[in-house]
Input
Amino acid sequence: MAVQYDLEGQKRAYAKWAPIYDKVYVKLLADAQRKAAATAARCGPNILEVGVGTGLVLPYYPHHCRVTGIDLSADMLRKAVDKKVARHLGQVGLLAAMDACNLGFADHSFDAVTVPFVITLVPDPEGALDEMHRVLKPGGEIIVASKLGADDGPVMHIEQALAPLVKKVGWSIAFKASRLRNWAAKYDDMEVIEISPVFPVGFFKLVRIRKNAV
Ligand SMILES: C[S@@+](CC[C@H](N)C(=O)[O-])C[C@H]1O[C@@H](n2cnc3c(N)ncnc32)[C@H](O)[C@@H]1O
Output
């Protein structure tokens, strides 16, 4: 049975975010976004960014890349198109409205798929990851940047104590790194090869999931 979820609610929420998103997040997310783009470019030139939003990450992809961006929100995408034109971002190709869980691309289309600050917003993250796996070439990587809750240890306890405060600013610790590991484990060819902390003070994580040639 298909998973039912509220795509329209998500679109309405991001219609409100679109005019202010860059001002709020440009500095906070920059380190993770820059590292996600550089990691993807090392896999090869043909890159898909899922949930491209206003295109904050687009200038970080090197000029030899060919980046395709998709997003659910037409309002966010419009900002990405403006950025592509205003900043002459020749590395950016198609920017299209699309659901992460239903990607309109052929199997094995991309060298890398980046997912910066999106995966926790998708009601069916495993469904979205399945699609990313499908469109990724063997040898490629899915690169997730996100706030991910710790699975155990002292950090988990600190996060639990701070959870109400974190929730007030719209973040959640509910999505744990183990959820990505568990998803990868159901595939013979997927492997989490790195989870590294990024600015600020490791609050965000960069996760590399490689599609091995089998
Ligand atoms: C926090 S923004 C991140 C934007 C950009 N990646 C960045 O790092 O600035 C999340 C974006 O994910 C998009 N999004 C949420 N759910 C989605 C889905 N199911 N499919 C595609 N995009 C989605 C939203 O519309 C929004 O533009």
In short: The first helix runs from residue 7 to 17. The chain has one domain: 7-211. Residues 10, 14, 29, 33, 51-53, 56-57, 71-73, 76, 99-101, 116-118, 121-122 surround S-adenosylmethionine (CB under 6 Å).
